[in-house]
Structure formats: structure tokens, C-alpha cells
Amino acid sequence: MSVDERRPTKVKRLPREVRERQILDAAVRVFSEHGYHNASMDEISDVAGVSKPMIYAYLGHKEDLFAACIRREASMLIEAIAAGVEAELPPDMQLWHGLRAFFRFVGAQKESWRVLHRQATSQGGPFSEELLAMRDRAIALVDALLVRSATSRGMDEAATKSTEALAAALVGASESLADWWLDHPEVPDKVVAGWLMNLVWMGFGDLVDGHVWTPATPTAG
Amino acid sequence: MSVDERRPTKVKRLPREVRERQILDAAVRVFSEHGYHNASMDEISDVAGVSKPMIYAYLGHKEDLFAACIRREASMLIEAIAAGVEAELPPDMQLWHGLRAFFRFVGAQKESWRVLHRQATSQGGPFSEELLAMRDRAIALVDALLVRSATSRGMDEAATKSTEALAAALVGASESLADWWLDHPEVPDKVVAGWLMNLVWMGFGDLVDGHVWTPATPTAG
Q1: Which residues bind DNA (chains A, B) (predicted)?
Q2: Residue A23 belongs to a domain
Q3: What is the pLDDT of residue A133?
Q4: C-alpha closest to that of A59 among A92, A94, A26
Q5: Are both A154 and A208 inside the same structural domain?
Q6: Which residues from chain A sit within 8 angstroms of residue B202, using beta carbons?
Q7: Cα distance from B89 to chain A (closest Cα, Å)?
Q8: Do A200 and B195 touch (CB under 8 A)?
Q9: Which ipTM was obtained for this model?
Q10: CA A206 → CA B3, B17, B174, B203, B213, distances in Å?
Q11: Which residue from A86, A184, B54, B88 has the fewest beta carbons nearer than 10 Å?
């Protein structure tokens, strides 16, 4: 306390990871609001309460900072989905929890999703690479779920060969639906997740006949 | 004949639309091979057999030319899908023909797909706008199919409300699977289309139980 009183104007020293988190939080917000090109390091510095030289020293210039945002947000998203999927659940419930986690993340962190997906896609270049690496991790996660599910039901090799392709299709469907959802925020996250779950679990064939999928227990959602 | 003989070095006069097609064909090929940044107008001019000043006069500079490529390829793709879908067929066969047309187009014109999707996505900027407009047309096409199918089966309003969202999911699934397929060209187009058809028509629930969808007539594929 007495030390602080002797240096009243000095910014309090914080561990590097705390500073980095402050910077990244601010950067996601500013990139999301203004887009990559119009976002200024001055505003990120203001919002973060961290000087520009310190931002440069910790996370580099604007392009590095944007790439760091994509990496962090992607990791958080993948972790949220992986945490939602429990291997001992039946396959439909695993898929349901994974989809729920995905749409909950997108819904709770719309800014993240904007940075992660729309901004990174529309910027192109090195950011698309970060995005593709993230997609590959998501596809591998879904693929593992499908393989577990298929082999536990005794599906043959020809059928399981297609799991990676179907995982890619499912990841694409989730991304595309999340983009649609950004423009239709009035739909609750659980409803959006339920639509996709029904599409990929029941299929249109059952849906047009009025057969829908519901979670195994009423409180599972 | 005698006129041509008197002007042997002059390039033969062709209607403007023929020249434009030559230029666009060449541009798609060169953009697809080298990527937007590394593609040179000199090479496009060489491949097209059309002078650079004429390319500039007809289709503008590199950015305009790339946008024109996306617009043309997107229109061809949408027309191929729309032609595949016949309103008097049952909904599953409409969807099947639409998916077949999509994967046949991507398979036959891998260069187009590369330009349309991968290149345009990784370039970002104005090209993403062209791409988004194309996606919106594709989503509207699928949505119309689902609404027709749903209302003909007497689905209620709540269910039909979700058709646009499901159409967006299906378009995203198709794009993502087509990207996966570019890296797995050994899989026949009909097989890839069949995987997606089964996913979205039967759903994983039926698939893991071994129930698969097949076209109504053996020769329909």
C-alpha cells in the first residue's frame, strides 16, 4: 500500500497473461464493431487500457493481433464443444450437447463469432489459414463422435469411410446456420440447435412426416 | 475470303460475347491455378488470345475481371441446380437431383469451384459480397423446395418457419463437403452426393441403424 502511494501515476503491474487477455478482449470488441480495416490500434489501446507500445511488445502489430484473436476465440469455441460432448452418452445426446454448446457459444459471444467467422472470412489471406485450422479441429471432433457411434452400432467399413465427409458437412451446416442466426437473433439458441439436430439426426424424410427428435430427458437441454 | 486474305495479320473480328467468354474462360483457369494475387493479366491475355487493352475495355481491370468470373460461375452453378430440380417430382427426388447437379458441377468444373469458393473466400473484400449474393440465391432455391415439400405434407406454420434456416444449413453443408471433396478427388461425385442426401434426408439416427435412402428408380441418379 505504501509503495503504491509513492507511485500514484504508475500503471499497476499485472502479470503478462492478464494484460494479454485485456488486450485480446478489447481487440475482439473493436475488430467486431469496425471490421479489420477500420479498427484502429488507438481504440484498442483505449478500450484495453494498455499503451500501444505494450500491445506491440506483447502481441505484435494489427495483423498479428487479429490472428491472435482468431486463435484464442477458436480455441475457446472448440473447448466449449468438446466439454459439451461426453463420450459415455448415447451418440444422439453427444451430438445434441455439442450443437447446444456451439450455439450457446455463438449466442453468448456474438462478437467472437463475428471476428472468428465473418471478419476472418471477408479479410482473407493469412486469417483464412487460421480459420481453416480451426475447422479441421472441429471436423476431427465430429468425426471421432461419428466413428464411435458407427462402430458401436456395428456399421461396416464402407459406411464409416464417409464419416469424415459427413463431419465436414455437419461443420459447414453449423457455420452456415450460425451466420443465418446472426441476422435472426430473435430465435432462441436452443431452438436453432434443435432445428439442426433434427435435420442431421432425423433428416428431412422424417421431419416432413412429422417425426421429430427430442432429448432423452426433458431437462437435458 | 478475299477480304481475309488482304488482312492476314489482323485478328478475326468476333462478337463481343464470344470474346468475353474467351476472356472469362481464360481468367477462371489462370486465377484458379495461381490464385488471385499471383495471377497476371499478361497470362490471361495469352491464354485467352485477346490483347490486354481489349480485356480492359470489355471487362475492366483485374479486380473487376475476378468479380465477373465469380458472377458468371455462380450463375452457371445456380442454373445447373435449378435445372436439376423439377417441381413435379417428389421432394426427396427434387433434393437428390439438386445435390447431384451441384456435385456434378463441382466435379466437372473443379476450377470454377476453386475460383468461386476457395479463392473468393480467401481474397475477402468485395468478392465475399459476390459470394454472399450467390449463397442467398442458393438458399432461396432450397427454401422454396422445403416449403413446397412441407406444405404438401401439411406441416404446421411453426415447422415451416424453420425452412430458411434449414436451407442455410444445407447450403453450408454442401459447400463444406465440396471443399472436403477437392482434397479427396478419388470419391465419385455420385457417392459424395449420396452421402449428403442420406445425411439430410435420413439423418444420422437412421444411418447408424443401417437405414439408407436410395433413389426411387434405379436409373434416376
Answers
A1: 40-59
A2: yes
A3: 82
A4: A26
A5: yes
A6: 203, 205-206
A7: 15
A8: no
A9: 0.79
A10: 69, 48, 20, 8, 12
A11: B88
Which of B136, B190, B199 has the highest number of chain A CBs within 10 A, making it the mutation to test binding with A? B199
* Whether residue A48 is found in the same domain as residue A151: no
Helix axes B41-48, B62-84, angle to 10 degrees: 50
Q: Where are the alpha helices (DSSP H) in chain A?
A: 2-6, 16-38, 41-48, 52-59, 62-84, 91-108, 110-113, 120-123, 126-152, 157-161, 163-182, 189-201, 203-208
Residue A4 falls inside a structural domain: no
C-alpha–C-alpha distance, residues B161 and A133, integer Å = 34
| Integer Cα distance of B176 and B81 in angstroms | 17
- Statement: residue B23 has pLDDT above 90: yes
Supply the CATH number for residue B101's domain: 1.10.357.10
Of the candidate ranges B51-60, B105-114, B189-198, the one whose mean pLDDT is the lowest = B105-114
- Show Cβ contacts of residue A104 under 8 Å, excluding neighbours closer than 6 positions: A80, A189, A193
One domain for residues B23 and B118: no
Q: Do A172 and B174 lie within an 8 Å CB cutoff?
A: yes
Q: Domain containing B56 — which CATH number? A: 1.10.10.60
Burial of A70: CB neighbours in 10 Å, binned 0-12, 13-18, 19+: buried
Q: Does residue B20 form part of some domain? A: yes
**Distance, in angstroms, between A196 CA and closest chain B CA?**
7
Residue A135 domain-assigned (yes or no): yes
CB contacts < 8 A, A to B, total: 161
Taking contacts as CB-CB distances below 8 angstroms, the residues of chain A near B173 are 169-170, 172-173, 176
The full length of chain A comes to 221
- HSE of B12 in the Cβ direction (CA atoms, 13 Å)? 8
Is there a contact between B173 and A172 (Cβ–Cβ < 8 Å)? yes
Q: How confident is the model at residue B209 (pLDDT cuts 50, 70, 90)?
A: low
pLDDT (average), residues A88-101: 86
The C-alpha cell of B36 is what? 488471385
Q: Which residues from A are below 8 Å from B169, CB to CB? A: 173-174, 176-177, 180, 195-196, 199
Residues B219, B159 share a domain: yes
Is there a contact between B205 and A168 if contact means CB atoms under 8 Å apart?
no
Domain that holds residue A55: 14-60
The whole-angstrom distance between A199's CA and the closest CA on chain B is 6
The pLDDT of residue A46 is 96
Smallest CA–CA distance from A170 into chain B, residue = B173
d(CA B184, CA B191): 12
Q: How many domains does chain B have?
A: 2
3-state secondary structure of B89: coil
